Amino acid sequence: MLLDGRNAIIWGGGGAIGGAVARAFAREGARVHLCGRTQTALDAVADDIRASGGLAETAVVDALDEAQVTAHVQQVARDFGSVDVAFDLISVGDVQGTPMVEMALADYEQPIVTAVRSFFITSKAVARPMMAQGRGVILTFGGDGGRDPIRHYSIGGFQVALQAVDAMRRQLAAELGEHGIRVATIHTGGVLETLPRDFPGREVIAEMIVGPTMLGRAATLGDVGDVAVFLASDKAATITAAAINITAGAVAD
């Protein structure tokens, strides 16, 4: 198994993407530490993993609270011997569909502040034990936020949030590489399964995601989990400071 014996912390582990990544990690032998603000959501994922023979721990942790995150990471390192993989998958609370000139400042800046704050806090916390052990993988989600603006539809501050995290990812990779720590991003272009069937404007968003692809499909939750496993494993030992493109050709590198 690709992640046998490793400890992976996933913030937002009770969500759709966080849960998919956690299941994939556990399937490959990792002990997953699911963090989030809702115990019932974390328990649902953990129970599913355990029922399949995997290892899962849960903790109610707010990824925007530095003291909580630091204490939990230290506990994992102390009780389980290592912190090998970290993945921040919390929702940033973006507001979409409202033109920028009509959007409230608070709505525009919320995803930017949330994404930057949570990634800074979680990365800082896990970097310390990873540096001590001389290895580790820090993953982010969302890619470069799109190289071109989206016409006729506004995604508010979400795109800016992704670009900010991408800049942080590149800098972290440069600073932490000498300690054996890799930092990488998964760029999907959007996962349709995360959109509720009754989500306002779902058909428009689905066409925005699938329409530009070369393969006529978007990445699935399963695709995200499989790529996350690869990036977290030694098979990706030379990949750092990179965004892995699984947009099905929507973005051509």
From TrEMBL:
Keyword Transferase attributed: no
Matching Pfam families: adh_short_C2
GO molecular function, one term: oxidoreductase activity
Key words of the record: Oxidoreductase
Superkingdom of the organism of origin: Bacteria
Stored InterPro entries: NAD(P)-bd_dom_sf, SDR_fam
Sequence similarity: Belongs to the short-chain dehydrogenases/reductases (SDR) family.
Protein name: SDR family oxidoreductase
Organism: Leifsonia tongyongensis
